[in-house]
Amino acid sequence: MRRDEEFSEFFTSRFDWARRTAYALCGDWSEAEELAQNAFVKAYAKWPSIRRETAVGYVRTIVTRLFLDSRRRRREDPVADLPEHGVDGDYDDPDARLHAALRQVPPKQRAALVLRFVHDLSIEQTAAELGCSVGNVKSQTARGLATLREAYGEPVNSECA
């Protein structure tokens, strides 16, 4: 019974974090909830063999790979996404603008950006989580940032920091 109690404590303390990570990747709260739940189901199945000090990274890797797998399986994209807000949406909200811009970044590039800049992982750590080379992470990150800048529509004012 100790295994269940230990996992329950881990799940309770980290589920919201995993859901926010999934949301940063997919931009949809319902899908984020599903990705996080599936990640914890997979983690529970392997719980006896997971080192507790690396459990957070293990779940983050599962969330990222589930997201990328879901995008690979999607052969048809909808013609247009429904907007988050009405036509007169609140685009003065920087978070809303950033999430809208992030949704325009291709999935692998988005995953690289989220791991590098949201989770502050090194290039090497990001490569390990994505299962690719360091060079691939560098190119995906550079392309993703270029796409994000273009989607964001205007230069970010660094004086506001």
TrEMBL record:
Keywords: DNA-binding, Sigma factor, Transcription, Transcription regulation. GO terms for biological process: DNA-templated transcription initiation. CDD domains: Sigma70_r4. Residues 97-148 form the RNA polymerase sigma factor 70 region 4 type domain. GO terms for molecular function: DNA binding; sigma factor activity. Residues 16-75 form the RNA polymerase sigma-70 region domain. It holds the Pfam family Sigma70_r4_2. This is RNA polymerase sigma-70 factor (Sigma-E family). It comes from Lentzea atacamensis.
